Amino acid sequence: MTDLNIGINVRKIREAQNLSTQEFSKKIKISLKKIEKIEDNKLLPDLFVIKRICDKNCVNLNYLLNNSNVERDEELFGYFVELYENQKKRNIFIFIVMVLLIIIVLILICELIII
């Protein structure tokens, strides 16, 4: 996947508001470490982070992705498909963990009732 340079545009958005990375991270409710990685292009933000950055800073997706190194629409589409698939996997994992926790709690409750 081509480097989208979203981080450069996130930094521009933050600097245009004269915010430190810490202030910006609080504004969009994302950890400071995550913002730093995004701005350094070490982390591609997921769809929820992208939406939060756009919403909290009154910018649209085109502005955030403008001036990136995306040469073809297919690359951008592929990026979002990849983000969607990763988010879907994360949601499935969270669901499985929650089900397991519920089962454990039910087992513990049953053991307490029997005792």
Structure description:
- This protein is mainly α and 115 residues long.
- The chain has one domain (6-114): 434 Repressor (Amino-terminal Domain) (Orthogonal Bundle).
- Helices cover 74% and strands 0% of the residues.
- It has 6 helices and no strands.
- It has helices spanning 6-16, 21-28, 32-39, 47-57, 61-65, 73-114.
- Helix 2 (21-28) packs across helix 3.
- The mean pLDDT is 83.
Could you write a compact summary of the structure shown?
The chain is an all-alpha fold and 115 residues long. It has helices spanning 6-16, 21-28, 32-39, 47-57, 61-65, 73-114.
Proportion of β residues? under 5%
CATH architecture group name: Orthogonal Bundle
Name the assembly state. Answer: single chain
Percent of residues in helices comes to: over 70%
CATH superfamily: lambda repressor-like DNA-binding domains
CATH class membership: Mainly Alpha
Number of domains: 1
Structural class: mainly alpha
Most strands sheet = none
Mean pLDDT, to the nearest integer, reads: 83
What attributes does this structure have?
115 residues, mainly alpha, elongated
Secondary-structure map:
Elements: H1 6-16, H2 21-28, H3 32-39, H4 47-57, H5 61-65, H6 73-114
Helix pairs in contact: 2-3
